[in-house]
Request: fold
Amino acid sequence: MSQTDLRGKFVWHELMTPNAQAAAAFYSNVLPWTIEASTVPGYILWMNGPARLAGLMPQPSAVRDNGTPPNWLVYIATPEVDATVETAQQLGGKLLKAPTDIPGIGRFAVLSDPQGAAFALFTPAMSGPPDAAASSAGRFSWHELATTDPIRALAFYAPLFGWTRGPAHDMGAGGLYQIIEHAGVPVGGLHVLQDPSKPPRWLSFVRVARIEAALKAVEAHGGRVLNGPNVVPGGDRVAQIMDPQGGTIALHERAQAQAAAPKKRVRTVRRPRKTVAPRTPKRAKPLVKRAGAKAAPKSTHARVKPAARGSAARKSAAPRAAKRTRPKAGAPRRAQPPAPRTTVRTPRTPRTPRTPRTPRAARVSPKKTAARVRRKRR
Reply:
């Protein structure tokens, strides 16, 4: 990556604190960082895997006596430190540390913008490898400037680093949050300083995998959660923390991390299905009753009628056809198999034997017999 491509990028971060060893232990427990000694005496490097991303050094006694709290300093790349220092002073900036060479590393200078926020310029001695993705855990992913005048601050930084104005978000009572872009990519934001008792400053955000776990580690190792976690436009969550020595930094969780969180798998137990026996189709009632079928008596006390004789007996013995009932209008028809056609012969009722006739001689009425007796008496 050439020096021209590095212009306007946040390439380094540095913490100045009274107790460097305690700060190193705190951040190593909160973030996926490890420490490594550098070639500069007393200067500690923070590593994120094989990549160097930040430094740590004890705060000078003179700075500490002036009441300057522990703070993180951002380094912004530029092709020429000396030329950028001159431009910054013409735009109202103030030089805090003159351009200085670090053997084998590069050249840097420390300034403050017109509102008083401190930052550093840096020109590396050689072009390094391409930066890793800021979305990976442990990397610095965002930079935010709290200032008294965001419009004048952007007019100062834009010509120095080629930043452009991006979209703005209305924060209500907090005013507008102005996004700043580098080569069309959002890299930070500016907003109005809410606490007048604090000086304008840059706040760096570090990417974490799970913000809840990181905040628990902050409190477990003596730090404080100043605010958050809060949801910002886009669905990301952020929280501001303070280390035990007083240095402040912010944690940043991407919205994709929340969507990619593993969900608890609930095991469902399927109940065995009930076996239902198949329904037996109902037999259709024959329209004609079977011959000789006996009907159940309606009552045990039913009066027995005398048997009919002659043609009446034959009529009563003939079976009656079953009465067909038509379904009511609108009622669903019940599907029934057609009744089998059967031809049933009705047996004839045997005739009652006739009483034999009395011989003609014996067939004399009592009246005629009495008449004959009277005739004889005469």
In short: Residues 3-259 form a domain with the 2,3-Dihydroxybiphenyl 1,2-Dioxygenase; domain 1 fold (CATH 3.10.180.10). The mean pLDDT is 79. The first strand starts at residue 10 and ends at 17. The radius of gyration is 55 Å.
